[in-house]
Each structure stands twice: as C-alpha cells, then as structure tokens.
Amino acid sequence: MAACSSTMWPLDVPEHHLVIWGITCAVLAPFIVILNVLLVYAMVKTKETSSFTSHLVICMSISDTGMGLVVMPLLCCMMFIESLRSDCVYQKAIQCIAYVFGNTSFFLLLAIGIDRYLLITKLHNYRSFMTKFRLKIIISTIVVVSIALAIITVTAYSYVMHLIIISSNILCIATIYIFYAKLLLRIDKQSASMLKEDCTSNEGKPQVSKKSRRRKRDISVARTIRILLGTIFLLYMPYNFISSTWGYYRFEMKQDPGLALNVTVFWTYVLMFINCMANVLIYGHGNSKIRHFVKSYSFLHAARGNFSASRTAYDSESEITKDDRKQQLLSQ
Fold first, then answer.
1. Residues 286/227, Cβ–Cβ less than 8 Å
2. Is-contact 47 303, C-beta < 8 A?
3. Are 40 and 47 in contact (CB under 8 A)?
4. On the CB side of 198, how many CA atoms lie within 13 Å of its CA?
5. Cβ count near 9 (within 10 Å)
6. How far from 297 is each of 167, 171, 245, 277, 290, CA to CA, in Å?
C-alpha cells in the first residue's frame, strides 16, 4: 500500500490484507451504526434520558455512529480504489475525521466514568456542582479538544507529542479504573453493613431498605463503568503501543518499519472499530431498563410472529373446511 509518507497509514501492506481488511470494515460498519442507533432508541423509549450520564452516553453513541457511517466507508473506498492509496489529501482527511470521532468517544467515556463516580460518592452535593449548563460546557469542550487534537496530529505530527498523548490516555484510564476498584470495595462493605441493619417483616421475609437498593444499583453501575474502561484499554491501547514503535522507525529513524510491524499496526485499527460495538453491548447489558426493554421487545415481536403464523394456519384451515363443505353440498 503506497501511502503518503507524512500520514500514519502503514506502508507496503500486501494486497490481500487490503481486501480482507476492507471486507471486515464493510461488515462491521452496519453493525456499529445499527447497535448505536438501537441504544439511543432504547434509552428514549425507556425514558433513560433524564440523567446527565445518559446525555453523555447518547453523545458517545452518536460519535461511534459517525465512525461506522462516515470513517469506515471512506476507509473501505481507499482499500479498494488504488488511486486513493497515494492521495495524501484524502488520507489526511480520513485520518483527521477518524481521530475526531475516536477522541470524542474516548473523552466522553472518561467523562461518563467521572460523572458516575461523583454521583455515587458525592450524592448530596452532586446537583449543586453538576448542572445542565456545565454539562453543555463539558460536551462542547470535549468536541473542541477532539477536533483540535486531530488537526494538530495530522498537520504537525511529532513523535514526542504522540508519546505524550498515549501516556496521558493510559494515565487517565488507569487512574479512573483504580478509583472504581476502590469504590467497589467501599460499596461492598457499606452494602454488607446495610443488609445487617435491614428490618425483617412479620412473615420472616427480609425487607430491603431503600439505601440497600441504591447501593446495589451503584455496584452495578460501577462494575459496568469499570468493564467499559477495561475494554477501551484492551482495544485502544494495542494500536497506541504498536504505533509508538512503528512511528519511531518511520518518523525518527526515517526508515521502513518492516512488513510485520506494518501489517500489525494496520490490523490494530480494527480493534478500535470493535470498541464502538463493545460500548453499546456493555452499557446496554449493564443497564437493567435497557436490558429488559430489549428482551421484552424481542419477545413481543416473536409472539407477534407466532400469532401471525398461527392466524395464517387457522385461516388456511378455515378455507379448506369451507371448500370441503362446498364439495359435500355439490355432491348431494
């Protein structure tokens, strides 16, 4: 793949890798779009749009949808159209757009983690410092910073800057992940003490208090966020780690990184695309309302399908019975 020497796209990738990679992205892109649209639809139908976290999740889904709707089709075109592989302007444009959507999803996920952490730990003071105006400021800042980072990375790439960005990403994820690990331990201890204090009704059945129910919900949310952070680390960081070595050879040493490194960094892009689907599946499964909505929705359609099938069979049997009666009357 003869790419422009000033972009982050790998050089000299064999042709069959381009074809397989393009087919893979063409298959993944519709799933990314459909899953994220369904998540937003489920959140609206279940009225899960009242909290500040839900707005951040919707924005993240919109960003991931953009990745599947805009970036991946453009990349597929570059894989299958040979003239676009040496077009520097086209490659830089795709790289910039991909960085915008990727950075936005990444920063929004960090914002979701921080927001839920504050909601759990600072429940009584949460509404005083988290307002709708500040939420808009946070989302706007994330979008502006993502665009600025994408433009700077594409137009004025520096290996040192690349390492700084990667180091800061790892530090942010690791810090929030550690906070959530400690938070889960603290919530578990509080839940255990609350269960002992819960009253028992006259029938001898345990009566769970409101605080205990809230703590169970906090545990579920904390675990979901921790899984999301761990997933983004596993799917985003391979590209960052491998591209650091690849970028060192290409931009610092001014030499070809080699076939193995080119192919490896080329395929790590797919992991970041898979993360766009993983976010939806993890959050949708972790949210009980969305999970129950999806189950009931699928069961409802299955029931309607069975009813339609049985109705059609019944109508067919009725028609056959009518024909038999007509034949009998004619024979008489």
1. yes
2. no
3. no
4. 20
5. 23
6. 43, 40, 47, 20, 10
Contact status, residue 103 vs residue 150, Cβ threshold 8 Å: yes
Each residue's pLDDT tens digit in the chain (332 positions)?
A: 445 656 667 656 788 888 888 899 899 999 999 999 999 998 888 887 778 888 999 999 999 999 999 999 998 888 888 788 778 888 888 889 988 998 899 899 888 888 888 888 887 788 787 888 889 999 999 999 999 998 988 888 777 887 888 888 888 888 888 888 777 777 766 655 555 555 544 455 555 556 666 667 777 777 888 888 888 888 888 888 888 888 788 777 777 778 888 888 888 888 888 988 888 888 888 888 888 888 877 655 554 555 444 444 444 444 445 444 545 544 44
d(Cα 95, Cα 272) in Å, to the nearest integer? 13
